[in-house]
């Protein structure tokens, strides 16, 4: 693929289908306050953790592999007068080693958990990085039902083992001794907020008649298929869980 994620999400602040309203509700459930330090893994352009810093006063350490996103997030923090509380760093989260534990871990980039192998492995690793009674805020796609038809898998460009079901994730949370505080299922409206700026960026490329136009059409079709599958074959769930 020649189109970079930076080009695809050129006009996007939120890099997943989780609305600001849901992020606010998640922050309340996580009992965020100025004493809490948040580790934001796969921080993207920083929108969720900047929102939490501005509303709840938390301190944030964010990490993302895309240097352009890190520069953008830090400039946004400066513009919002939050640089004294929020800092983003470039780095591959698979290679990061931390010498402290955190009050809250945010894993909001879709598929971030799979970076550690699978969701179960990620939950076990996250738990070692949390303070006692620390909170994990985790966004994960889930299949509504298994088995998943080959037509759906083809349309989404995924394999059945790419995602778990809601029940399977709940089982893993119990096995890794996380207490469920609450969860939010992304709505069609959340997805519209997510895909609309992507469509704008892709239409811009198509209308410019650049050599990337065909690929931009495929990207639009792919996100369109994901949007149509919401609530029928899959969902994205934001989990708020406490270590115990």
Approximate shape: globular
Residue share in helix: 40-55%
Beta-sheet strand percentage?
Answer: 15-25%
Averaged pLDDT, please? 93
CATH fold assignment:
Rossmann fold
Distance between the termini: 43 Å
CATH architecture: 3-Layer(aba) Sandwich
Number of domains: 1
CATH top level assignment: Alpha Beta
| Number of strand elements | 8
Low-confidence residue ranges: none
**Mind telling me the CATH superfamily name?**
Vaccinia Virus protein VP39
Oligomer type: single chain
Order of helices and strands: HHEHEHEEHEHEHEHHE
What does this protein look like?
42% of the residues lie in helices and 23% in strands. The chain starts with a helix and ends with a strand. It has helices spanning 5-8, 20-29, 47-56, 67-79, 119-129, 150-156, 166-175, 188-207, 213-229, and strands at 37-41, 59-64, 86-90, 102-107, 130-143, 164-165, 178-185, 234-243. The chain has 244 residues and is of the alpha/beta class. Strands 1, 2, 3, 4, 5, 6, 7 and 8 form an eight-stranded mixed beta sheet that branches. The protein has a single domain (5-243), classed as Vaccinia Virus protein VP39 (Rossmann fold). It is built from nine helices and eight strands.
Task: Output the keywords.
single chain, alpha/beta, Rossmann fold, 8-stranded mixed sheet, 9 helices
Write the layout of secondary structure elements.
Layout: H1 5-8, H2 20-29, E1 37-41, H3 47-56, E2 59-64, H4 67-79, E3 86-90, E4 102-107, H5 119-129, E5 130-143, H6 150-156, E6 164-165, H7 166-175, E7 178-185, H8 188-207, H9 213-229, E8 234-243
Parallel strand pairs: 1-2, 1-4, 2-3, 4-5, 5-6
Antiparallel strand pairs: 5-8, 7-8
Helix pairs in contact: 2-3, 8-9
């Amino acid at each position: 693929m020649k189109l970079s994620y930076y080009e695809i999400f050129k006009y996007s602040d939120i890099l997943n289908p989780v609305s600001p309203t849901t992020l606010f509700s998640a922050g309340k459930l996580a009992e965020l306050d100025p004493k809490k330090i948040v580790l934001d893994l796969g921080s993207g352009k920083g929108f969720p953790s900047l929102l939490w810093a501005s509303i709840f006063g938390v301190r944030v350490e964010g990490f993302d592999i895309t240097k352009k996103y890190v520069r953008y997030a830090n400039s946004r923090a400066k513009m919002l007068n939050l640089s004294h509380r929020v800092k983003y760093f470039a780095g591959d989260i698979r290679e990061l080693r931390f010498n402290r534990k955190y009050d809250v871990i945010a894993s909001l980039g879709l598929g971030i958990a799979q970076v550690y192998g699978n969701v179960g492995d990620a939950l076990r690793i996250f738990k070692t990085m949390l303070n006692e009674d620390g909170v994990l805020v985790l966004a994960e796609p889930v299949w509504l039902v298994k088995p998943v038809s080959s037509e759906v898998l083809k349309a989404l460009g995924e394999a059945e083992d790419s995602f778990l079901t809601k029940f399977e994730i709940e089982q893993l949370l119990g096995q890794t001794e996380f207490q469920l505080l609450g969860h939010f299922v992304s709505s069609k409206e959340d997805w519209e907020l997510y895909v609309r700026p992507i469509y704008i960026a892709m239409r811009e490329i198509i209308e410019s008649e650049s050599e990337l136009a065909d690929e931009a059409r495929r990207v639009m079709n792919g996100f369109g298929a994901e949007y149509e599958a919401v609530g029928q074959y899959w969902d994205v769930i934001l989990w708020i869980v406490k270590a115990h």
